[in-house]
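INFO batch 0412 | record 1 of 1 | parsing
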Amino acid sequence: MPPTVVIVGGGYGGVAAARALDDETDVILVEPRDAFVHNVAALRGLVDPAWTDRIFMPYHRLLDRGQVIRDRVVAADVKGVTLGSGEKVAADYLVLATGSAYPFPGKTGEDESAVARSRLRAGREALEEAAAVLLLGAGPVGLELAGEIKSAWPDRAVTIVDPVADVLSGDYPPEFRAELRRQLAELGIDLVLGAFLREEPPYEAGRAKTFTVTTRAGRRITADIWFRCYGVTPSTGYLTGERGGELGTARRASGYLAVTPELRLPGHRHVFAIGDITSLPEGKLASAAGRQARVVAENIRALIAGSGELTRYEPGPPAVSVPLGPSGGASYLPGTGVLGATETARIKGEDLRVGTYAEFFRLG
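INFO prediction complete | emitting tokens
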């Protein structure tokens, strides 16, 4: 009998690992959502109704031999996982790929794709009513959302506020940030950097209702809607307390999991972790999750065969691509340097790789 590999989480890393191991192991992918969400295109799905349905991709054609169980893991140990239903699923190899939570609209946070679609439509309707938009956070999501809003509604006033003195934290060259600021200025987006708000807006994010906030320096900003564009939270709660057992020792106070160079939890030969939940010094990107999934698949195959040393994962150098609407944006690639709008559109693709993932999920 082939060994059983339980993969917890059907995001970018989880589905890549599942597909890579499907041919010679019994793969069980556990995922609470009824469809994969292509979060890379989520912000386009918010502003453009033609995109809303395209970012949701069902799992039913992902695997040839394995199975997808729609449930949530509430506890895990070296022997397998416990589901929300109470069922226990035994595993010879365990891959943790539960990803992270992020404020809407960066992620919808819904298990039902129909509910997620409705939330995106409601957000778009609220934006259509708003004349001025406030975004809190000048990281990749804040900048990209600003660009999408200005592309869909050029007359909207968009203000980005961040306590940090420049856009996009990370080890990137000054000319990259300068290119982003230049394009943001051309779009008419107001950057208020190095500024703290005295208090958050009085209404919930995504609600169309006029308000005024004030920075500590005394600047007043009036807007009709706001969104929080910061706050990644690794989804590793199932490893806290007794639920995590001995695996919980890998969970740091931040919620991220320590991993060995082979992407195993320290001290556990057959338990791996990939994607947003790892403490690796690397951007939490879909591409990184995919590279990690390939290494884990190679290592599980090597352990099954009992041959050779395991592959060590090398975190990639800082690299990022930030689209600002369909035709704008900037990228930084080590060895290449700073790329402008045309090259960024080429990297991301006009469809933000929706077609690539539709093909991966065999959706025709």
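INFO post-check: The CA atoms of residues 9 and 97 lie 5 Å apart.
INFO record closed
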